[in-house]
Amino acid sequence: MTEKNFILKNLDTTNLEKGSFTWKSPSNIALIKYWGKSEPQIPKNTSISFTLNNCYTTTILEFSKKENLSKEFSIKVFFEGKTKDGFKPKIVKFFERIEKYVPFITKYDFVIKTENSFPHSSGIASSASGMSALALCLMSIEKELNSDITDEYFNKKSSFLARLGSGSAARSIEGELVVWGNHKKIPESSDLYGTKFPYDVHDNFKNYQDTILLVDKGEKQVSSTIGHNLMIDHPFAKKRFKQADNNISKLSEILQNGNLSAFVNLVESEALTLHAMMMTSNPYFILMKPNTLKIIEKIWKYRGDNKSDICFTLDAGANVHVLFPEREKEKINTFITNELIAFCQNNQYICDNVGSGARQL
C-alpha cells in the first residue's frame, strides 16, 4: 500500500452525531532499534519489536458534532482523571499531520480520556501506546462511517496514522513481533506502517518474558524527537543504519532457528549501540544512570554463573528491560527480587511478557 490508499475523501458524516470508542493499546520494546528519521516520520532504518502485554494505554475518545463549521481542532484532554493541557500541543500536531487522511476530525468536538498502566515519560514508550490507542479510536470512527473497511485495512491505516504521532507507535497495533521499515528480507514490510513478523517463530521465543526495572520514573532528560534529529549530522549515522539493516537479517534468522545465545548477543549489542549513538552526537547526552550499569553488570554475572539465557535491552531512557525465555521464569524472578530491585526507584518493577496487540473495549 502507498500513502494514497489512506487518503479519505467524500465520507458523509451526516448520520454520526456523537459517540465514544475505547481502545487498550500496548507499548512495545524494540529489539533492533530505530534511531533517526526523515519527515514525515519515515525511519532511517528498519526496526523490530516485541509487543508488550501489561504496559498499555487505555484511551476513551468521546466525540460530538460541532455546532459551528470551524476548521480549528476542538480537543479536551484528561490524563488519569485530570485535565492535561500539556498533552494538547502534541495531539494538535498529530491532528495536523493526519487531517487529509481522516478529514472528519475537523467536524467534531473531541474529549480524550487516557491513562497508562505504567509511569508516563519514563522510557517505556508511552507515546507508542498512547498514539496507537488514539489512532485506533479515530479509525473506529472511520469504520462507523464506512462499514466496508476490512480488518487488514483497519490495522494498516491505524498503524499508518499512529506513526505520524510517534514513530514507534506504528509497532503497537498488532503483536507479537512487529516490523516497521522497509527491508528486503521481510516481505510486505513498509516505512509507512508496521507489519507482523511474517515467518514462523521458534518455540524458544514464545511467551518471552520482559521484566522492566524502573531505575528512573521521572521525565526523560532528552525527548526522542530531539534525539532522532541529532542523527541528521551524526558522524556515525550511515554506519549505524547499515548495521541495523544487517541486524534485521540476523535477527530474522535467529527468531526462526531459536538460537538463544545469538539472540542475547545481538539484542544487548543493539541496546548499547543505541546509547552509544546518543553519547557521540552533538550535543551529546547520557540517559543511563549509575544503577542502570549496576543492573547490567549483575545480569552479565548471573548469566555467566548460571549458564542462563537472560539478557537486557534498553529504550531511550534509564530503565532496564530484562528479557528471558519462559522456562527460566521462576529462577530469574527470584534473582530479580533478591539482587536487582534494590537498584530500582522505590523498588518498583513491572513483570511483563510478549502480548498480542491492541484490543477494543
Structure report:
- The chain has 361 residues and is α+β, with helices and mostly antiparallel strands.
- It folds into 2 domains: 3-199, Ribosomal Protein S5, domain 2 (2-Layer Sandwich), CATH 3.30.230; 206-353, GHMP kinase, C-terminal domain (Alpha-Beta Plaits, 2-Layer Sandwich), CATH 3.30.70.890.
- It has 8 helices and 14 strands.
- Strands 1, 4, 5, 6, 7, 8, 9 and 14 form an 8-stranded mixed sheet that branches.
- α2 crosses α3 (151-165) and α5 packs antiparallel against α6 (260-279).
Summarize the structure.
The protein has 361 residues and is an alpha+beta fold. The chain has helices at residues 88-98, 126-145, 151-165, 224-229, 237-257, 260-279, 290-306, 329-340; strands at residues 18-32, 37-38, 42-43, 47-65, 74-79, 82-83, 108-116, 177-180, 194-196, 209-213, 311-314, 320-324, 349-353, 359-360.
Task: Note the run of SSEs as H and E.
Answer: EEEEEEHEHHEEEHHHHEEHEE
CATH architecture of the largest domain: 2-Layer Sandwich
What's the N-to-C terminus distance? Answer: 28 Å
Count of beta strands: 14
CATH class category of the largest domain: Alpha Beta
Mean pLDDT level: 94
Using the CA coordinates, give the radius of gyration.
20 Å
Secondary structure layout plus pairing:
Layout: E1 18-32, E2 37-38, E3 42-43, E4 47-65, E5 74-79, E6 82-83, H1 88-98, E7 108-116, H2 126-145, H3 151-165, E8 177-180, E9 194-196, E10 209-213, H4 224-229, H5 237-257, H6 260-279, H7 290-306, E11 311-314, E12 320-324, H8 329-340, E13 349-353, E14 359-360
Parallel strand pairs: 5-7
Antiparallel strand pairs: 1-4, 1-14, 2-3, 4-7, 4-8, 5-6, 8-9, 10-12, 10-13, 11-12
Helix pairs in contact: 2-3, 5-6
